[in-house]
Backbone:
């Protein structure tokens, strides 16, 4: 059975309930008032390894760990080889939980192999909401606060990637394997098409880095991609809202294609040091 063991998360929240200054994922404050004056949300861990430099590994270790609750994550089928589907259970690397305080109450956001993104009460293990993607979720999401939301319920967005889709193929025109989900409602806000390219993948395993009003993320199609994280720059297609990309840079050359074939994927998460962004790719480049 695959479960969450909640001891360390709940202990950290319940005992200290404070946010280290260096875990913010953008320059804007991530504590804010929503519809009611008493509504307050603090993002404790809002992206992979906690911050833009990807170096937050926690700040305190308890003297002992006790299991407070268990939650069965379950599993579902995926097709990692392109031949025969297989069942994956639980959650995997780099699927790190996101940790949030809402009205001083802790919650966990977790991408799961049963194709869902889940919000759980960190003290009780109660499921708050579950959103279903087209395939397993391997990577960690990024939470972003929209300073000017058109809908207060979409003020905090979770940008989350997944595999390309159990019933999808690399040849399809549209593979929406990256999406924005409302933290408060668990409903989809927009999706991003991971376009066809020479890479043998259209998954999204990396975690976005959001700086000011721009999202930076490496997609497994081999392109380092930039777009606005909010509800602007959207186009409607097939009943869904799609995000428009305003810049993308290939992380491969023609020589790389000849040398590596389709092994051009970007599975890493960008980091920021000073005025420079760093990311690695399967083509062998930093």
Residues:
């Amino acid at each position: 059975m695959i479960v969450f063991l909640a001891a360390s998360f709940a202990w950290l929240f319940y005992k200290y309930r404070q946010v280290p200054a260096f875990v913010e994922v953008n320059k804007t404050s991530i504590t804010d008032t929503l519809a009611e004056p008493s509504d307050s949300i603090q993002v404790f861990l809002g992206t992979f390894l906690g911050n833009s430099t990807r170096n937050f590994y926690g700040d305190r270790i308890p003297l002992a760990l006790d299991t407070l609750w268990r939650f069965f994550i379950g599993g579902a089928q995926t097709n990692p080889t392109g031949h025969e589907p297989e069942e994956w259970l639980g959650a995997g690397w780099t699927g790190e939980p996101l940790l949030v305080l809402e009205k001083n109450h802790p919650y966990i956001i977790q991408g799961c192999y049963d194709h869902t993104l889940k919000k759980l009460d960190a003290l009780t293990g109660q499921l708050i909401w579950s959103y279903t993607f087209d395939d397993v979720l391997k990577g960690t999401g990024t939470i972003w606060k929209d300073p000017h939301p058109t809908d207060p319920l979409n003020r905090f967005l979770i940008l989350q990637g997944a595999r390309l889709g159990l019933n999808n193929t690399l040849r399809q025109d549209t593979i929406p394997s990256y999406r924005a989900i409302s933290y408060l409602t668990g409903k989809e806000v927009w999706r991003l098409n991971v376009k066809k390219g020479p890479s043998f993948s259209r998954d999204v395993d990396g975690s976005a880095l959001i700086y000011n009003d721009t999202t930076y993320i490496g997609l497994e199609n081999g392109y380092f991609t930039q777009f606005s994280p909010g509800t602007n720059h959207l186009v409607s297609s097939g009943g869904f809202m799609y995000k428009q990309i305003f810049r993308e840079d290939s992380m491969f050359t023609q020589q790389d294609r000849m040398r590596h074939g389709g092994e051009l994927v970007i599975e890493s998460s960008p980091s920021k040091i000073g005025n420079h962004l760093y990311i690695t790719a399967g083509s062998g480049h930093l």
